[in-house]
Amino acid sequence: MADSLVGRTVLIARDPVRAEGLKLRLTSLGAEVLVCPVTATESGDEVALDAAVTAISSFDWVIVTSVNAVNALADVAQRRGVNLSSAEIRWAAVGRATAAALAELGVIAAMPPEDHSAAGLVAAMAGLATPGALRRVLLPQADLAAPILADGLRAAGFDVTTVTAYRTVPADIDQAIAKAWASGAIDAAVIAAPSAARQIAAQLHPDAPVTVVAIGKSTATAARECGFQRVIVADDSTDEALTAAVCKALGKH
């Protein structure tokens, strides 16, 4: 794959720290890489999250769907003096990055689904619900989270408590990147969340000749709904899988 992306420009629409590993991989293949977060996170429902973390042992499961949710839990736990790794509960995570963030806290996800999506997690947990006996689940999530996970778990027989762990707000796209996008200089954009797809569509032009490499089916669906015509889904959320997806999207192997 040496130099397979020479002459190509790739936008990574996420926080520079989260983008660093992918940027290094793409740069090593000759790509010019632009990094620009299009959303930012703010505190969620602090009162409800504090109460949930303080009483975390009263739940049977805690399900996290993003690194941001893990970080929000960790911040509250540190402030309230709660040791998440010693709580007698089970954890589940959507996505390898989320599971890795939990592992950094000493928490091992008991159920990382093979299908790294909300639907995949619901399917994996559906067989665990005991008829007539609800199992208590804490679901800390973004304010913009789709209801598919909470609704699916309830339908499977779980008693779900949702808490807004963080809020997603727009971040202005750098004008230099906006000009490059408008001029057709950007060949591919790596988008990690539905909210990011919507922000790019709102601030830029979804009809530009840019191929979207989406992390997850929900992000791909949002991108298509926003008007992006060229959308592919990476096989996984790892930097290696995203690099392979970008090479595939740009016709290089």
Any overview of this molecule?
The protein is α/β, with parallel strands linked by helices and about 250 residues long. It folds into two domains: about 110 residues, Rossmann fold (3-Layer(aba) Sandwich), CATH 3.40.50; about 130 residues, Rossmann fold (3-Layer(aba) Sandwich). Helices cover about 40% and strands about 20% of the residues. The chain is built from ten helices and ten strands. The strands form two sheets. A five-stranded parallel sheet has the order 2-1-8-9-10, sandwiched between helices. Strands 3-7-6-4-5 form a five-stranded mixed sheet. α9 links the parallel β9 and β10. It is elongated and about 55 Å long. The mean pLDDT is about 90.
Highlighted features:
alpha/beta, elongated, Rossmann fold, 40% helix, 10 helices, 5-stranded mixed sheet, 2 domains, 253 residues
Record the SSE blueprint:
Layout: E1 9-13, H1 16-28, E2 32-35, E3 39-43, H2 46-54, E4 61-64, H3 67-80, E5 90-93, H4 96-104, H5 118-125, E6 135-142, H6 148-155, E7 158-170, H7 175-183, E8 188-191, H8 194-203, E9 211-214, H9 217-225, E10 231-233, H10 239-249
In short:
By secondary structure, the chain is an alpha/beta fold. Helix content is 40%, strand content 21%. It contains 10 helices and 10 strands.
pLDDT averaged over residues: 90
Under the CATH scheme, the architecture of the largest domain is: 3-Layer(aba) Sandwich
| Protein structure class | alpha/beta
Distance between the termini: 6 Å
**Radius of gyration (Å):** 19 Å
Spatial ordering of strands, largest sheet: 2-1-8-9-10
Main beta sheet: 5 strands, parallel
Return residue spans where pLDDT drops below 50 for at least 5 consecutive residues: none
- Tally the helices: what do you get? 10
Oligomer: single chain
| CATH fold type of the largest domain | Rossmann fold
Work out the count of structural domains.
2
CATH class of the largest domain: Alpha Beta
Strand segment tally: 10
